[in-house]
Write a structure and sequence with these properties.
Elements lengths: L2 E5 L5 E5 L42 H13 L16 H8 L13 E11 L2 E10 L2 E11 L5 E8 L2 E2 L1
Antiparallel strand pairs: 1-2, 3-4, 4-5, 5-6, 6-7
Length: 163
């Protein structure tokens, strides 16, 4: 049996068998014999195969909590947030990020909990609790949706200090 690896546009390489028409892979069920119009009263009705659940994108407040954590813990550079901040928020991040206020010794910081409060259409105030081992920090931020329908961070607060 000859097999080759092929790369599909949606994922890693898969094996493709080189079999001719009419040959069935070992272990696969064979189609029932007889004409396709024949029905049996005792045959159970089969439900159509369900496709795996499509991945929905994360809500913007969760995405921004992860992004701000990555920048403020030193995992990502500040310029990673360049197109995702509005107003003076980017300048504030530039001033704050070198101190890496969310970096913890030992354990990697993670977003433990995140929630949001919509103020009006296109404006959301969100909060996140950041945990790193025994240490827990709080972060609050405001997101505003621009005319291009993209969300941008407009303000950030950590531990009572305005960033």
């Amino acid at each position: 049996m000859s097999t080759t690896a092929t790369r599909t546009p949606s994922g890693p390489a898969r094996r493709r068998d080189r079999r001719g028409p009419g040959q069935v892979r070992p272990g696969t069920p064979r189609p029932a014999a007889g004409p396709a119009t024949r029905t049996t009263a005792t045959a159970p009705a089969t439900a159509p195969a369900t496709a795996p659940a499509a991945r929905r994108p994360l809500p913007p407040h969760i995405l921004f909590a992860e992004r701000l954590l990555a920048v403020l813990s030193g995992e990502r550079p500040v310029h990673w947030m360049l197109g995702q901040t509005a107003g003076a928020a980017y300048d504030q991040l530039i001033a704050l990020a070198p101190g890496t206020p969310l970096r913890a010794r030992g354990a990697r910081p993670v977003v433990r909990r995140c929630g949001c409060f919509p103020l009006r259409p296109g404006v959301v105030e969100a909060y996140a609790t950041i945990a790193a081992g025994e240490q827990v920090r709080a972060m609050a931020f405001r997101l505003e949706q621009g005319t291009d329908r993209k969300w941008r961070c407009a303000a950030v607060e950590l531990g009572g200090e305005r960033l």
